[in-house]
């Protein structure tokens, strides 16, 4: 009996391919080529399943051209590359990879907050330009982190992990806004208080975004929201590009409307809006919040195990549209 055919859309660790090859006929992309839409659609149409990286579109147009496709397993926790209702209509299972990256991403989010608040990138660039020739009392004065007020928008697993670090490790007052309020147990664990978005933006010294991307969440932070923030406040986005209006943010940074920002994600990435690149009071990283080898390998293995479970047992570990299985 022939093995199901799957495609792995980008470079992965070799042990993932070895593991998958026990169960499937695998097409890999270890050269890490980025396909255009036509190339991607053509390749996907030749396979029964795909291990996707959270960037390849799986929408109505793609699905209509891929009638034999049965499952797409995202390596990421985010899945805004999936049109889940369209996948459900075409009876294609969608999965993601939650949980495994929670603590690593929370570590990075807090690290980005620290670098932003304490102006670490600005200080390093100052040294690299050869401008450091004396010490001053007010040299690169940043914002206090310990004991300050942190506002978290999006209080899922990662948001709660950041809140725990803030409250228990740094004595911060934690405010949060979410689509729904947490249980009393979770609020107590995080020492977090639920407030409206407007109240959070007005009161927080530091705002961290951990919101899943959706049409409704597009530009959660735009010009109006930035205007509510303190001029001494910082903004950190480790969620998804498009959650922040990057043009409005650049204007706010350049005018001093807010003090600083840290971004790991961008609208239209890997392109970064040139206005952001002109801002000195910003820390920029290339979408690496979950990037440790152990975590990225774990994410890939979750996706691989979803594929294996589907084709061997007719079920998956982390379904996004379980009704297809039913």
What secondary-structure arrangement, pairings included, does this model have?
Layout: E1 5-8, H1 14-21, E2 25-27, H2 37-44, E3 49-52, H3 60-64, E4 71-74, H4 84-89, E5 93-95, H5 102-117, H6 120-128, E6 149-153, H7 157-170, E7 173-177, H8 184-190, E8 192-194, H9 197-203, E9 206-209, H10 223-228, E10 234-237, H11 246-255, E11 260-263, H12 274-277, E12 282-284, H13 293-313, H14 322-325
Parallel strand pairs: 1-2, 1-3, 3-4, 4-5, 6-7, 6-9, 7-8, 9-10, 10-11, 11-12
Helix pairs in contact: 5-7
Q: What is the rounded Rg?
A: 21 Å
- CATH top level of the largest domain is Alpha Beta
Task: Measure the end-to-end span.
Answer: 25 Å
Uncertain spans: none
Succession of helices and strands: EHEHEHEHEHHEHEHEHEHEHEHEHH
The tally of structural domains comes to 2
On the 0-100 scale, what is the average pLDDT? 96
